[in-house]
């Protein structure tokens, strides 16, 4: 029996299997591999081919089993460990995937693709320092890997290191000039710096290479609508089919005062699906108040009822160590500034603050998550999608600090890609000429939306140091200017259901 189980297929039997695999006939290759394994159960190449075929068919669990069987027969195959890592990653087994990539590297130290994939895995976990280190190691082995330069750029941008990210994207383009994704991401990062002329040029470069490129179309549309060229923006949004393109198109119709077209599309959307787009909720509520009709969109019809305020004991206690650490890291960490036009006499950080390595930011992120859970509990049972479809996994799509000095304020705006938005207050001016200076004001009108009247309600909160304010992302909000020479410092953030892009938060 032992001799029978170790019997190997002939080249004549294996070659048709390889032909099927190489010609992309994966289902047929998988079936033939299974048939041959019935006769030759201890044949490495059959397990390996079956794994590759199942992987290509999206049957990742089966691929994992096949790769594992192949590794029992030949445990020192770096490519096999690498493929196993990809399969593990596809089913969300992160630690197993990382272990497989590291095993591939241990066997073949110059396996730059394994370093790159490990970096991507670490980046998705928010371990940006480790991700960057792996990307740099991969590039030290193969500096001509355009994808490696691109991935490094994405991690550096998440860290708020915009100049370094731009260099990485440019290097990716130097290696592969037709890299449309790199041109588009370069444009986004230049936009973050406030360099709109070069940003638009990069978007146009991406679209010249791929007219259907989703991000480049979206970014170009965003530029046009910020320039109030609403009718020009709509076709780009429609070509992008990306993220909140439909809401953005609706925004353009509304801002262009094409109210009939707006209402027709709104009615179609209301009938066709769940009311889970905060940006569309903003538009629907504004239209309803503007024209004195019932708001048909049930994301959160009365956002004022869902504004939440609480003290965070770890920050509001006298001589809070965490508060001191946060203020110190804001002052001293190497975080680039993000330029945006709605902030006056102030500074906003780039990148995603809660993905940075500083212990203070990580500690605050966990405290904020606790408050999100309290928020959900407080409003449990509310008959609106804000609460009924509340994110099960708490993912910060964006987080940043805002430092304002005398005269500082933010214009009324919304966080278009948020679900719940909020801020934690670390410093507030106390020397004020009027009580409302520096307050957080919220409402249903802003951004120069067209008004038929001025009866749009507003509310306000005067937060204390150490307090958190949470609110539906559909609400407009602004900072009331203050005259004090003291700084006003907060850390703001957005929460959104997992899997939604995090690259489009502006304020």
Automatic annotation (TrEMBL):
Xref: Gene3D superfamilies: q2cbj1_9rhob like domain (2.60.120.620), Tetratricopeptide repeat domain (1.25.40.10)
TPR repeat copies, ranges: 44-77, 78-111, 112-145, 146-179, 180-213
Keyword set includes DNA damage: no
Keyword list, A-Z: TPR repeat
PROSITE patterns, per the entry: TPR (PS50005), TPR_REGION (PS50293)
Matching InterPro entries: CHP02466, TMTC_O-mannosyl-trnsfr, TPR-like_helical_dom_sf, TPR_rpt
PANTHER family assigned: PROTEIN O-MANNOSYL-TRANSFERASE TMTC1, PTHR44809
Protein name according to UniProt: Tetratricopeptide TPR_2 repeat protein
